[in-house]
Amino acid sequence: MICIITGDIIGSRKIKDSWLLNLKTALKVVSGRSHKWEIYRGDSFQLEVEPENAIRTAAYLKACIKVNKPADVRMGIGIGDLKNKRKKLSESSGDAFVHSGAAFDSLKQGKVNLAIKTDSVDFDEEINVLIKLSLIAMDSWGVVAAEMVKLALENNDLLQSELAAISGRTQSSVSEALKRAHYTEIMEMDRIYRKKLNQMILK
Description:
By secondary structure, the chain is an alpha+beta fold. It has helices at 18-31, 54-66, 95-110, 121-138, 143-154, 160-167, 171-180, 183-202; strands at residues 2-10, 37-40, 44-49, 72-80, 114-117. It has one domain (2-202): Reverse transcriptase/Diguanylate cyclase domain (Alpha-Beta Plaits, 2-Layer Sandwich), CATH 3.30.70.270. Helices cover 55% and strands 16% of the residues. Helix 4 (121-138) runs antiparallel to helix 8 (183-202) and helix 5 packs across helix 7 (171-180). The radius of gyration is 16 Å and the shape is globular.
């Protein structure tokens, strides 16, 4: 079982190309050594990650793009089997790719920027409600909030005082930015997602 994230950049034509470098760097970070990602059609991308990392990865990519105000990102998460593995991600096939494409295609109709699709209707319904609630916070991240979420996700073992030292901000401003971003609640959603995913896989 794998996870495929299909996405595109909202408002890419209205801003400088700095978002492209940020996207490439972010994709390299989340894919690790696997390099299982592609950018195509200028502002669209596809990425393979471990299923349990889907929500965290989506939040990280969103933070990396929202640093480039007013850019944002739409993403469809698909979890399922991999049937034909090719050297190029876009040439591979399987349920994960079909689900990711379907989740991505549903975004405009659902008027949301993030959705998930798996083989389980009940799982999808439950997690998509959590995602919609999280988007109330994530869609409104400002540049500073996005920067702090990005930094916190990159250094999730560090204390806020250490994040402050890295960012050159005061601890209170880091704390305030993460509070404004609802970072704790989003990480709680990530924890519930991982738990529910594990339960679904074990069924």
